[in-house]
Amino acid sequence: MHDTPPGRPHGPEPDAVPDDALVGELRELMERAAAGLAPLPDLTQEAVRLGRLRRIRARLAVVGAVVGVLAVGGIGSVAFGGLGSAASQPVSPAVAPPSASRTSAVPSPAPSLTAPVPVASASEAAVRGARTAEALTRALGDLIGTVTPAGVDHFAGRLKGHIFPVTFQVMPGGGGLAECRDLPETATTCRTASLPDGSEVRVIVSGGTLWGGQSFSVSYRYAESTVNLTVTPDADAQVSPPVTVDQLVAAAGTKALLTEVRDQAKDRALDAAEAAEDSSGEASDSPSAPAETAPATAEPPTAEPSLADDPSGTDSTSETGGSSR
User: Fold this and answer.
1) Is the full-model pTM beyond 0.70?
2) 152 vs 78, 80, 173, 297, CA distance in Å?
3) Rounded to an integer, what distance in angstroms lies between the CA atom of residue 270 and that of residue 272?
4) Number of domains in the chain
5) Range of the domain at 179
6) Mind listing the pLDDT tens digit for each residue in 38-94?
7) Residue 108 lies in a domain
8) Which of 64, 105, 162, 219 is in Cβ range 3.0-4.6 Å of 234 for a Cys bridge?
């Protein structure tokens, strides 16, 4: 028989409850208390968003610090440079202002009212660039995709994520075509073709894999103009344009491009006529310089008759108080 500690009766207490039953009751009470509460939100997306915001703020802080250092350095160089240049200039003696009596009386010419307006010319250039891009899209759209303006005489075809630069120039006069010769060191080949109307075309293919792709160019005369059309590869991806020599020659002879060449020739003639008209208008509007008039000379005073001219001899001296002899 084992000894029982003092103060503790033999056997379990009457109010003792097993641990499992107690845990079950507590769980049930907690579930009842939380039954009316809303479910907890998902904190994963919020944590990701906060992490991204913190990274962006850190990057912006670094960029702002770099820009601030560069700006302070630029301002300091300008300030010290200005002080140095001002200090190096010699002090010139003060010049007295010209006197008012020497002021020219010739009126200053009035400002011309026919000065060109840059905004209008820029809008006209944009309209012409959009028109040329549309013509290039009709001629080359199936090969290099939609063509959009990218500057004066420069455009870009976009196809399947690639950008193929395009140059389209219409120059006045029937200048010489590009010289046709092969250059093996630059992988350049040249050949002669013809447009549907019989016009001669020079076709030049240059470059290759080692040069980041091939470039295709055609040159021909049409509408008293020399036309150059060039399609170059995507420089970033080093991909040649999906164009063949025959396809580029056919595109150069399409109605869309030939019409664009004629339109550019007409625009060039209109611009030349307007420039001539403006120059003549400015010449007529400018005030002509006043004719220099000789200073008016006073009429010489009437001389009194001399002795030689007076037929009365010495009798004329009587008018001045003298006596005749």
Assistant:
1) no
2) 35, 40, 19, 64
3) 5
4) 1
5) 166-270
6) 666 666 677 767 777 676 676 666 556 555 545 545 544 444 444 444 444 444 444
7) no
8) 162
